């Protein structure tokens, strides 16, 4: 049904159905609420001091993908930032499944956030606010998958890289420079040692078909972990330091993330890879299969 | 009147007066609103990605202190982060003065925040949200002024240090370590070169009575600027690189900020200063005088 026709039906069946169709639920602290009411007062430490952690997972055919891994990381992030989630993991799972059910969402993204709470003085931690909300996401285009993307290297090290905090200040601040460069995303490095992209982990495939990814100063992505597991069945995989110079000797490079799964990289700055997607696309298929049978 | 008596009066005069007495106003985007309604939806980029800038100034005897300087810096921070404030400076001033008037606030703190706005995908900038709200603050205790505070040095460099962003992730994350150390605040350094405290600028007074403050990798505080102006009338002042080693040769050290004005430092890590507050308290008086006559 075209959007125009659907709107006509909604108009004819009246405001009750319209509200029902538009209505989305979120979860805030202890209750399911109208998505529009998923608000935080400005005294929350996320707004005051950028202090919050989160996680994001996909739901495909009504199944939250790698949910246990995402919850494990979310609880780890919360613990590392002294934020009490307020529910044990199994209770969180139940809330998430109920939220998906209430929203009748077969395919979506879900974001879980724990913030520093309503601080009395805008600095001290308070009781955390827990927010779970649906957040759609875009997937790679066929062209990105076949041609690969381009990366712009930039010298920066995220603070507390092992924790999934809301600190993306530099990534968003760099958007105009990124646009100007014509690249698709940023690759952080410090003193020529590569770490990660703002929302993805980074890998190379060497001429000897070894798969290498930076070991330190990165967020340990869920797909990064799954990729290493899957790749180890066929290839040698190393987690270790990786320099920009070494990258340029690689056969191919790719990035991994929850929304992208795997995306081949065809170019970093001025350097172009010979075989931009051979093993990357093979591993992508392996991962999509793993995701489907989980 | 004691608090108990006041509450009794409120109880007897009924809910209307109670509401009137408790009611505080904030300003959000284009309207004065009940302070309780100063909320942002969770799609705001401050909550999603820690992307927002702010400024904070004192109001003393109904006069906003150094307001022009704070507004200049706020507009600079907003411009550097591509956030449109939405009002010219003189209009902002008018809104701030009206807000103070509506709240009948003679002595308070005011926080102005501009966020990345309600992002369609949780990453792209949107129309900024502008929030102005009253925020009380605590002033130094007489003991802190006479004895000075202690600092714990910590290796960290704030990202985009020249912009007053909401990025205080590291400062808040370090609070348990700070408490454990017994120190009052943190002094950031990188490779032994000192920058600033999380919410203050740092100065030393050398044996030759030269006043030195780090020139780079710091937020240029309003009180820092005023201090330099005031101090130059009597002392030689240098803005330049400053190492932890050089600090230890100083006669005294102090920090400056809007809420603290000047606070002497008696100790950094294991090092204690000989004359912890002689020139610091003298300059403090000069600054308080400047603030009063502004």
Report on this structure.
- The structure is a homodimer of 294-residue chains.
- By secondary structure, chain A is of the alpha+beta class.
- Chain A is built from eleven helices and 17 strands.
- In chain A, helix 9 (222-232) crosses helix 11 (278-293).
- Residues 1-20 of chain A have low confidence and may be disordered.
- The interface between A and B is large, with 46 and 46 residues.
- Strand 3 of chain A pairs antiparallel with strand 3 of chain B.
Sequence-ordered SSE layout with sheet pairings:
The structure is a homodimer of 294-residue chains.
Chain A: H1 3-13, H2 15-22, E1 25-28, E2 31-34, E3 39-41, H3 45-49, E4 52-60, E5 63-64, H4 67-80, H5 89-103, E6 108-115, E7 130-134, H6 142-147, E8 149-155, H7 169-173, H8 175-181, E9 185-190, E10 193-194, E11 196-197, E12 200-205, E13 210-213, H9 222-232, E14 236-239, H10 244-247, E15 252-257, E16 261-268, E17 271-272, H11 278-293
Parallel strand pairs in A: 8-9, 8-16, 13-14
Antiparallel strand pairs in A: 1-2, 1-7, 4-5, 4-6, 6-7, 9-10, 11-12, 12-13, 12-15, 15-16, 16-17
Helix pairs in contact in A: 9-11
